[in-house]
């Protein structure tokens, strides 16, 4: 069994089709001063042709998948239109490098920068640059596009990677599932798979060399596992699981308009995590009662100028207006990585996850922070906006950003611009110090939100982006459960609402546990909400409290997981 990242839910059983994209070979060589103008002309021709090709693919993606899912193609068009990207290639050509070598070097630098970032979202952006580079090189080399081989039968597509253009060319009606070596939850393959409801597992590491065309393969996109050449008993087990999943899925589709309420009448809220305004429609369709985490990094990445206050305002207000009075919690800018994709130069970070990120980034670059705060405040005039700040570890940092928030409110008032003067401020609990001293923050905040992804990373000293030790990144570790309980208890004692916006909130296995601990709001990827709601509506609050009490008495993550699995299965809840 291979373990990867659960990219799109569901179970696929079928024969493998190994997809191998074309390989491009080019020569980097020096050119004479007389050849520079000719190389610059070739570059401009390649940029124009690549833009025309991508514009056509983008139009098709818009038609087939809708605006929300076509975003990756728009991102690649933006790379081709990026003056900084073009300038770097031109600079190399003028220094005496041929156009193929210049494109290859610049693209490689961007890919390396993003892949080394340690941030999943940024690593996925590396694929966009890789795709654009391949397209430009193919045009420069005079190679015609090689059509993707047609699938002759329903198959599980196995690949090292799956680019945006290739994903559009595959015969999607014959794809049973995807098993990909590279990628994360926001990669093109996952976006496509979720939109077409195709089970997918990505981030599997090197395994394609072990597969032959026609091998039987099982893809469990709900658990993130792949089984090569399973025995008959395993096939029968997964066929049963697939039938159960499809039956549950049909049942869950009927839950979108029903409240997240236990059988004894205890109600919680289900919220969605988003990165872009285009995701709002999907969140609402899945029954989201608000946005519990609106990440804002998307607007800042891959550009050479800071987004203006007006540009940010337009970005935020789109979400606020689409939610029509439902709450929208906006998280200010966060970034962690050894290199900066920002227009703002940053110092080298030997340990970026313990360096200038989160609130430290906000406070070190006050112009960026103030501009963002003003834009968020302006958006608050159009709906129910809340704001929270990432990686807070000290009360004094929270007090400082609140003072800056008040200053921004005064500036907007003097400028005659509307905003919500009572905008709520939340504590995003992502580090152990904040979780352990949650009561010290109570007088300063209106609500709490627990970010389990970083909380687990910092508590257990496990880099969640490291494939080698990723299995040690365990949200059900007793230390994590105790920290979560402490935050929830403090919130309840201080009469504050408490949400969870980390991946744990979107894990059905943890739903009864979190419900029993007293969590008020579950904020997760939109696709997870129906299954979370199904669990909530199938139990009583008393049962959930008993489950939480017993889970807290266990001493190992594996024991907690087995116990919760048994509780789910005993209630005939799909797991």
Automatic annotation (TrEMBL):
Gene3D superfamilies, A to Z: Phosphoenolpyruvate-binding domains (3.20.20.60), Phosphohistidine domain (3.50.30.10), PtsI, HPr-binding domain (1.10.274.10)
Residue intervals of the PEP-utilising enzyme C-terminal domain: 250-539
SUPFAM superfamilies given in the database record: Enzyme I of the PEP:sugar phosphotransferase system HPr-binding (sub)domain, Phosphoenolpyruvate/pyruvate domain, Phosphohistidine domain
Molecular function terms, GO-annotated: phosphoenolpyruvate-protein phosphotransferase activity
InterPro entries, sorted: PEP-util_enz_mobile_dom (IPR008279), PEP-utilizing_PTS_enzyme (IPR050499), PEP_util_C (IPR000121), Phosphohistidine_dom_sf (IPR036637), PTS_EI (IPR024692), PTS_EI-like (IPR006318), PTS_EIN (IPR008731), PtsI_HPr-bd_sf (IPR036618)
Start and end residues of each PEP-utilising enzyme mobile domain: 152-224
Record's catalysed reaction(s): L-histidyl-[protein] + phosphoenolpyruvate = N(pros)-phospho-L-histidyl-[protein] + pyruvate
Highest taxon above the source species: Bacteria
Keyword entries, A-Z: Cytoplasm, Kinase, Magnesium, Metal-binding, Phosphotransferase system, Sugar transport, Transferase, Transport
Major subcellular location class: cytoplasm
Keyword Ribonucleoprotein: no
Assigned EC number: 2.7.3.9
PANTHER family: PHOSPHOENOLPYRUVATE-PROTEIN PHOSPHOTRANSFERASE
Function field: General (non sugar-specific) component of the phosphoenolpyruvate-dependent sugar phosphotransferase system (sugar PTS). This major carbohydrate active-transport system catalyzes the phosphorylation of incoming sugar substrates concomitantly with their translocation across the cell membrane. Enzyme I transfers the phosphoryl group from phosphoenolpyruvate (PEP) to the phosphoryl carrier protein (HPr).
Protein's name according to its UniProt entry: Phosphoenolpyruvate-protein phosphotransferase
Organism field: Desulfofundulus luciae
